[in-house]
């Protein structure tokens, strides 16, 4: 998601990277303060976050890679991203944000639309949407485990398993909503650009320049844009299963 600019130290970071470091620092401070209420750093939530980072995020990126490969582009395979190995997908900053804010990212999978065998716009939509919908599927599976009671019959206390699965489901749905925000570099922006008529290159460049700032504004000034659809989807999933 972020590209280095060469050199070392604070001065070597881009403006967006500096903003990201400051924002994450503030979120970590908030997490430390808020953990006194027993929420953010509870054992069940920590296990859920670890599962998101080691399983859900790799599944998300693998879904992008697998869709691109299935459509004819071998770029993800050649770059070693056609795998569920979390070590090749984890982005430390994105993983830390999962811990303190319930949203984050992994290293984005690169692919080349020139190599796919179908219409490029449709291919872009399918590749971009594959990641977020993998999170929705994982949330659905988590609810199935909750409703079936299978996960409650193991050696761990039932209340702990319920808490873990609830955190796992909630974070996956939040990731689904977050990634579909139509702001670069999130997956929703690729869907948006593919749906817009004509050449969208200039719009992409403009939005990419200010994408991170727009996301921060949404997160801190208009969090309802994320929380409201997340709540609606959660209620729909729990009532459907």
From TrEMBL:
Membership in a protein family: Belongs to the peptidase M50B family.
TM helices/strands, residue ranges: 20-41, 84-105, 125-146, 158-181, 207-226
A GO cellular-component term linked to this record: plasma membrane
Cofactor(s) the record lists: Zn(2+)
Keyword vocabulary terms for this entry: Cell membrane, Hydrolase, Membrane, Metal-binding, Metalloprotease, Protease, Transmembrane, Transmembrane helix, Zinc
BP GO annotations: proteolysis
Cellular localization per UniProt: Cell membrane
Protein's membrane topology: Multi-pass membrane protein
The keyword Zinc belongs to this UniProt entry's keyword annotation: yes
Highest taxon in the source lineage: Bacteria
Protein name: Site-2 protease family protein
An annotated Gene Ontology molecular function: metal ion binding
Residue ranges of domain Peptidase M50 in the record: 159-216
């Amino acid at each position: 998601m972020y590209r280095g600019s060469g050199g070392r130290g604070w001065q070597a970071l881009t403006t967006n990277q500096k903003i990201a470091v400051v924002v994450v620092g503030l979120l970590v401070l908030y997490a430390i303060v808020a953990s006194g209420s027993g929420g953010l750093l509870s054992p069940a939530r920590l296990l859920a976050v670890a599962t998101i980072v080691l399983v859900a995020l790799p599944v998300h990126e693998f879904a992008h890679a697998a869709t691109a490969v299935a459509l004819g582009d071998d770029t993800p395979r050649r770059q070693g991203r056609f795998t569920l190995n979390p070590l090749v997908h984890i982005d430390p900053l994105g993983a830390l944000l999962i811990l303190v804010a319930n949203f984050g990212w992994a290293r984005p999978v690169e692919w080349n639309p020139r190599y796919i065998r179908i219409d490029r716009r449709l291919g872009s939509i399918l590749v971009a949407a594959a990641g977020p919908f993998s999170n929705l599927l994982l949330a659905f599976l988590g609810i199935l485990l909750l409703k079936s009671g299978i996960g409650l019959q193991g050696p761990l206390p039932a209340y702990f398993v319920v808490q873990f699965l609830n955190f796992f489901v909630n974070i996956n749905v939040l990731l689904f909503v977050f990634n579909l925000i139509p702001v670069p570099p999130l997956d929703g922006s690729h869907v948006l650009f593919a749906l817009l008529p004509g050449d969208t290159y200039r719009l992409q460049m403009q939005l990419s320049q200010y994408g991170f700032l727009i996301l921060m504004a949404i997160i801190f000034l208009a969090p309802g844009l994320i929380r409201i659809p997340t709540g609606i989807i959660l209620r729909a999933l729990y009532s459907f299963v």
